[in-house]
Design a protein that fits this description.
By secondary structure, the protein is an alpha+beta fold. It has 4 domains: 10-113 and 259-334, Rossmann fold (3-Layer(aba) Sandwich); 119-255, Beta Complex (Methionyl-trna Synthetase, domain 2); 379-529, Isoleucyl-tRNA Synthetase, Domain 1; 587-689, Beta Barrel (OB fold (Dihydrolipoamide Acetyltransferase, E2P)). It contains 21 helices and 26 strands. Helix 8 packs antiparallel against helix 9 (283-289) and helix 17 packs antiparallel against helix 18. The relative contact order is 0.09. The chain binds zinc ion. Zinc ion binds at residues 150, 152-153, 155, 158, 163, 165-166, 168.
Amino acid sequence: MKKEEKEYKRILVTSALPYANGPIHLGHLAGAYLLADIYVRYQRMKKRDVLYICGSDEHGVPITIAAGKKGVTPQEIVNEFHFRNKVAFEKFGISFDYYGRTSSKVHHQTSQEIFLNLHAKGIFSKRVEKQLYDEKIDMFLPDRYVKGTCPVCGYAEAYGDQCEKCGSSLSPAELIEPKSVLTGDVPVYKETMHWFLPLGRFQQRIEKWIESKPHWKTNVLGQVRSWLKEGLSDRAVTRDLSWGVAVPLEEAKGKVLYVWFDAPIGYISATKEWAQEKNDPDLWKTYWQRQDTRLVHFIGKDNIVFHCIMFPAMLMAHGDYVLPDNVPANEFLNLEGNKLSTSKNYAVWLEDYLERFPPDPLRYYLANNAPETKDADFTWQEFQQRNNSELADIIGNFINRTLTFVDKRYHGLVPEYGEYDDLDKTMLDVLKKAPKKIGLYFEQFEFRKGINAFMDVGRMSNKYFNDQEPWTTVTKQPGKCATTLNICLQACRSLAILMGPILPFSAEKVWRMLGLDGVVARQLWDDAGSPALKPGHKLGQADILFKKIEDSDIEPEIERLKKIAAEMMERKNSEKPVVQTKPKISFDDFGKIELRVATVLEAGRVEKTDKLLQLRIRIGDETRQIVAGIAAWYSPENLVGKKITVIANLEPATIRGIESNGMLLAAEDESGQLSLIVPDRDVASGAKIR
Ligand SMILES: [Zn+2]
């Protein structure tokens, strides 16, 4: 069944608000920003009404913790990273129409208005809860401010929301021996009132809405459906913290909005600020409150639940807003085969990258290798190879050989064309069809395919140049040569427009080399396929488009990451003994223990106990008696004839008046159940165990 395409008048695109507690790395770019930017740049060239909104997420506990560690205020932390990230995005060509921040006044007001709107509608439920409290500093402790032992794996440094060792989600109450991160004191429980969004009340509406989105990416639908299947529960929208948007109620003094609640509102408040800058303060409503707006959220997979369930529930509850038409979330990007780790500096930071390389090669490789449907891996070698053998050898080479040829043979003027042969017609047809073909992939969020289709145009252009052999025809068939070069120049112009969304900096460079007016970003996408260069047009100066990347350029980066990966591996191994062992013993110590296989000859219960069995066993030629606490799991009759293992040289002991001359070996599981250790093949009684 074909989905009926709704008529949209405008497109509102958002990228996840990055946390302003650290710099941007490649994982961020591949997740929520680069593909969104390609999409937006494409839509602008389609001359559609598109608005691209983002900003810094400046609230939340990680920011107050980062501030605490550095001994500065949270505002100082967010000021630093807001501006640093804004600049880095700009240098990388991410073309937000507005980059806001959630510490702004407009954002605080907007969040409070939405909270009060929902509050007035009676949406929230109120509940008194017991929460951990640090009495020394009179402060409730949010999950990240509590550390303790993980109840799942025993890791001693687990946080109140998650154990970083085993990955279990936790609540502070589950921690064994919780401690305040701030004072090291044992926190107490104290009652506190909080407001909750009862998501369960929106379950059916969200289900129905999600089922109307069969065109969404399968990885997104899969995650949303599994949340819905589990059933939605209440979620706190307030918390006891000083940094954040104050809850605008008298009875909620000292509380702020939970960051998951205020952060997505950041998209709305940033749009308001954008409209104010345009001197059209109500313009934001056109994008957020008219149902003919297509809202698209670009995010990483860790944000799916917030953008597909919680934020939509808030907007449904409010009633005046559009819901997302699509949420093309990406999976994660790994680095040289390992997971990124910002705390271990196992990452490639955008600022560092930009100091060494131009933005476009990274845009090309990352977009072509984006984790669209599954996790992807970034390697420096592949980055180098994609730049050298695709960007430089195909696109760069074709444009350069065309321009230098025309410069030399035609004084830098576009030559006249004559009659077209079959190869000419095929090439012109490839150019004509390219914008629609590539554009369709972009509209369907299949960026990898779109970029490959773009590269195919470059490949075919190069092949066309080779097949027409202008270096031969230039003397023998000058008319044919002129036609070939005319078409090659048309292809250069087409490629400049087609690379506009993907390689914006290089596209403008080609435009200048072609001596064209204006900028690529303002060209009409659909015109990319028409042979618009007029004969006699004066070209500009040819220049290298993509510089080759040498081994020596990337080797230091590879080495740096290898070193960190090795350290991470070592740390992981040294942390390995989750199993608490006794102090190490020497091999000689072990040699003192005489372990033997024994056969059970007779077995019976020890009177007046439920635990003990009395066994008569044979070790080689010797027969002896032992007492073992296995009655709960083994009946005497099943033991007779069985081969077991024993310590044969243990000092005799008297148990319940019975002499036990040795001890059998058994494994004990967590529940205390014992399981006899038996040889896995038939061996003679008395065999030594080593
Ligand atoms: Zn754990």
